[in-house]
Give the backbone structure.
Amino acid sequence: MTVVAAPLRTAPRRGLLLAPVVLALTILAGTAIGETRLPFITVLQTLANQLWEAGYPVDRIDAGIIWSYRLPRAIVAACCGAGLALTGVVLQALLRNPLADPYLMGLSAGASTGAVLVTVAGVGGGAVSMSLGALGGALLAFGCVVVLAHAVSGGAGGGRATQAAAAIILAGIAGSQMFNALTAFVIARSANAEQARGIMFWLMGNLSGVRWEDVASCSLVSIAGVGLCIWHRRGLDAFSFGADGAASLGINVPALRGSLITATAIMVGVLVSKVGAIGFVGLVVPHAMRFLVGARHDRLVPASALAGAVFLVAADVISRVIVPGQVLPIGVVTALVGAPAFALILVRGARR
Amino acid sequence: MKIEVQALSARVHRTPLLEDMTFRIEPGELFGLIGPNGSGKSTLMRCLAGLSRPSAGRVLADGADLKRMPARRRARRIAFVEQQADTTDRLTVRNAVELGRTPYLSPLRGWSEIDDAAVSDALKAVEMTAFATRLWHTLSGGERQRVHIARALAQAPELLLLDEPTNHLDIRHQLSLLDLVGRLPITRVIALHDLNQATACDRIGVLRGGRLFATGAPSEVLNETLLAEVFGVAATRHAAPDGAPRLHFSHAL
């Protein structure tokens, strides 16, 4: 009988060794592929020059493209993919709803509103950066959703925790509609044509402005997010049979839900503030990974983070090369892949 | 585990569901809870499981107030099988039972041989060993209920709470499940709808409108007058072929 359970604990180790290799290869590929084709060896030589002062003769323009432009972009894409996929894992596990993701919770919409208020309407008078505005917006939207869900489910003493989970999804839909409307209102009222175009581009997700300054915060939140989720893997597992089930297994449900969803809100706020609102990663990647590695979070969390990173780097590459001479918003690519996958999840769910 | 319920009241949305309830459950006892729909059985179960906080009064488990007990420690001593707990996750039977070890594990203390043994024993106790690798959504209702009980047993509890575990099961599964519960050597509280099944309990508590109407041995409590008053049915009690008392219900009053 122990034989049955054994693979559960040996398999992740092999995967964990492989993960950094896959991640490094993905980032290298994201750096090498682009409108200007650069040989793989040039990429490696540039990296060697920068990291160890190896002194390979590399064209300065090529080196600039690789080091200052493509590499930070690929790293940030990987971080965002990992982070957004994780938020999907967390929300789907805690709310017991297969359609939960940062979009549905109104987090992305709130972040957009915050960013637009700062950049277009000039809230904060230049003292507040767009990132801070987006973070504030995400947390505010999250607060609204929680308060609304609380009101819907009838207060703390209220009924079953499962009802609360359904309420938070409905509240999330209401919240994202409201914040999207607010964003549209601010753009229509205050933005000139040029700004509006820029904002629309950002709203669909845009990695072209990413530089080395952005790498630190993005990698910090996504690595912290992976760590936090792995730390709480058993708590996430315990939600398999709902919040009451988790509570009777000794999980402090309000504390775990509160801390993980707050962490999610912060993660989304930081990532969206850097790259805009990229949809469907948080929805599609966790489902695909559940299919591949199962529902247990000791495997699902690292697998989703890795797959999210690979998916978003790939989506970024596609967005740069698919239309010659033009960069598509990355959200267009993720949505074109994600929307059919979303439909598939719905259909499969209905059949069950 | 000895359970003392002292002046327990509970309310949801300001509606009182349980009022001033006092009784005790002795260690090793099989205690049945019966009562019409909405009489407060599930609410009482949730209070005993520590999932709902009483608005007044308290529940003592071996003298310790349940409200003050940390969730992890509580889960090592009290296991709860909910009325209907389902999942859409692709879990195997063994995975589901492994969840019962959650209160013994921490982020740093990983899975061990002891946990494996506890899971295997629990599967064996409910005769589901052969199903260990089956996926949850391929199981029948009766099999799922058995897995839930195995999960609860994997918690190695001193008190097992079962909220209407025979609901939606065919008669064979009902009887085998009750037989299984009857043989467990721990304190058990079981909410039941079928009054004839309740006669197998050591003692029963009868709830009506959120109050404890009566407690005692089934043979004393389940009489014609009480059944008429609490359940609103005309019933007669007679001996089954094996000599055990059986209730026969004729019509609603």
